[in-house]
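Hi all, long-time lurker, first post. I run a small reading group and we've been trying to get comfortable going from sequence to structure in the token notation. Rather than ask abstract questions, I figured I'd post a concrete chain and ask someone more experienced to write out its structure so we can walk through it together at our next meeting. Sequence below, copied exactly:
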Amino acid sequence: MNLLAADLGAVVDWSRAQFALTAIYHWLFVPLTLGLGFIIAFMETRYVRTGDEFWKRTTKFWMRLFGINFAIGVATGLILEFEFGTNWSNYSYFVGDIFGAPLAIEGIMAFFMESTFIAVMFFGWDKVSKKFHLAATWLTAIGANLSALWILVANAWMQYPAGMRFNPETARNEMVNFWDVLFSPVAMNKFFHTVTSAFVLAAVFVIGVSAWYLLRKREERLARKSIKIASIFGLIGAVCVIWTGDGSAVQVAKYQPMKLATMENLQEGQTHAPLSLVPGVEIPSMLSVLAYHDTEAYVVGINDLIEGNPEQGILSADEKIKRGQHAIETLAAFKAAQKTGDTAAADSIAQLFDPATEAGKTFHNDYFRYFGYGYLQSAQETLPPFIPLIYWSFRVMVGLGIWFVVLFIWMLILEKRNTLGQKRLPLHLALWSIPLVYIASQAGWVVAEVGRQPWTIQDLLPTVAAVSRLESASVQVTFWIFAALFTTLLIAEIGIMVKQIRRGPSDK
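-- Answer (accepted) --
Happy to help. Here is the structure in token form:
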């Protein structure tokens, strides 16, 4: 039995690692596509309006970099979706009715849309009218972001499950309100926060590449115009990131208090909770303000969630585990009554899983909401792993985000004064900001995904219950295969991108 438990633990760890590996590599390619598509569309709009061939040449240059990135992003994204079936089959069964819907819409509507118009965008120059080509470029950019919408809706549902009902007959969660899933506050905020952060990344990328040209006294007009457009675009994106980041803090405090506590490494809950800048340096009451917009608000700490805090109405983790086990046992009793043909008992228990009934409402509030805790063995399992990683990732993300705002404003001031090509320091800083913006982007996902562990679906399904029952050795083998494949793809992409940047825009 211990051997089986140890192997299951290894399967969970390796499956987590494989999914994280795939997601990290996938997100190296996606955000540039989301933002660069709109920058390209803005540039082509200038071409159509002015007829200036400079803008066509500039658009084509950035379009080549977009295309390289787009192709590899699609490849890694497909593998990521397949892993739900191969490594997380219990998860797929438990919530496939809900989770599969936005992913299906993404494939049918958004992906086909961008795939169709991207062909016109790349190969339709001089074959279709200027306005039709421009429309194709805009639709490609919109389609890429619509793809992100549906994927982020699915991800947000895992953080805050809504619009569903548990069916005891099938032991699955089923969608009852599609609009609640789509327009949940977490889904909308997550979409805008994520895509606008991608706009910031794309803007920094364009500014950095353009700075490289200015440092080498090449393509100076293209570089200056690109920096101006990207700086305005990035600054608008950064303002949206700050605004949606405030909304994220409120939602995390409400729906995922353990994530917020680990982001701040807040051991003891308190009113007037301070915001930790770095260990030992705090802003008094700022965490209460960010989480609840109230300096006197009580912010839950890690120990509150582990040990419980009756004064704040917080159950201990052990009590949640007991209530989750009761919910699982109730489901087992329903199945047993069905099996023995005791329809009266089965009907009576089924009402407990129907929140439309008074008994079901009570059972849901007191027990079923903790269903996932029933699969955990100890209170310590409710803690996310690598708390220092979550803490520092949040600070890296925010700190670099502030720098990017400074960079955008600095670039716009230099461009306004017509001294952009004369200042080497900001150009060097802009160039080195390219790797920094990717680090910031990855740090955001570390906070979001590592911070919500051990849950695949918040409070309803932990990773230990979601994983496929595979041999750990098989998951290890595929992990290393994917690691080698993705690394090769990344090296190839960087090599091709660098070659194209050194080559510069083409006159054809």
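A couple of things your group might point at:
The chain has 17 helices and eight strands.
The mean pLDDT is 91.
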